[in-house]
From TrEMBL:
CDD domains: XynE_like. SUPFAM superfamilies: SGNH hydrolase (SSF52266). Residues 193-385 form the SGNH hydrolase-type esterase domain. This is SGNH/GDSL hydrolase family protein. Keywords: Hydrolase, Signal. GO terms for molecular function: hydrolase activity, acting on ester bonds. Residues 1-20 form the signal peptide. Pfam families: Lipase_GDSL_2. It comes from the Bacteria.
Amino acid sequence: MKRLTGAAMLAAMMHTPLHAAQHWAASWQASPQAAWHAEDFTLPTGVPAALQRQTVRETARISIGGRRVRVVLSNRYGRQPLTVGEVHIAGANGAQAITFGGARSAVIPAGAPLVSDPIDLPLKALELLQVSIYLPRHTPLSTFHWGAQQTGWIADGNQAAAATLDNPQPLSGRALLSGIWVETMTTARTVAAFGDSITDGNGSTPDRNRRWPDYLAAQLAPDGIAVVNAGISGARLLGDRMGANAASRFGQDVLAQPGMCAVVVLIGINDIGWPQSVFAPREAPMTAQRMIDAYRQLIAQARTHGVRIIGATLPPFEGTQIEGYYTPAKDALRREINRWIRERGEFDAVVDVDALLRDPSHPARMQQRYDSGDHLHPGEAGYQAIALAVQPLLTTSRGSSLR
């Protein structure tokens, strides 16, 4: 056999793709965030501080299907390794044990994700999956997801393989599950919805998949385009209380996801509303330039990775009952930011959520038909309208506009 030199070997590798038939796409996501202590913040986490000798079962609706699947667990904000005893995934085609390096148990290093082996499990678009994780040791939930809009369950003992849990207790947030990837037959394409509680789906009916990324996923599934929800309730462009600031998590939550080709950015209302409110009473008022600089950082990150970035204007929020959240000065700042998003042309495209949802006779307020009732978050009609407005920016009458 002829031995190749280092340069020849490198050239051969460049012209012979490894695993050329594999096209992995992120098909579902829950962005990790750091848990906080009850005494440090006005909102509860809604999840236990720790689990031990218990099984967590979570439901997730994927966006596109595939022939094989990987599960991603996260210990991003943990300070110690976490032991996973057993993981099972169940869908319409049955249930299977998930392995990690060929083993059913694994350790998630502190600050890291854990990606499973590929499992042969054919999945359909928009299929509901259940992922069950047994945690045999003391497991602090330092990393979780607050606004699940999906009921999970906790049960004592190892019930990961059980078809039905025995005496489960409801879980309002998400524990370790952060992603589901599928292998497709063609080039993978994933769109991320990056934002705050408006993207995370506050105001929608839990367990019904009626957030705007859910509606968009249903619209794009026939084109083979996946949609993942990278929204975190309370998230901001600048600030780290509920989720890390936008620029610091953008790489992991968006750019590092397999198949990523486009992102819709709908974030910033908390940067305006939080300062001097019950959430951040001692923070100085936000300025337009600070927010614009933060948007430009996201644009720069996306461009260097060849990811199309779509900016969304911020919807109106007069009437919200959160103490100190709305003032006329804050609304003036929102309108200034929206003018920059619409007129400067720095995003690749713009979806005008403000114009879509606002009351024409009272532009500082949301139209009643789109309002969830809290005057800050859209209801399901509003979320569906956002998805319908985003879709044309991602597809054309002749099919997908994404590459």
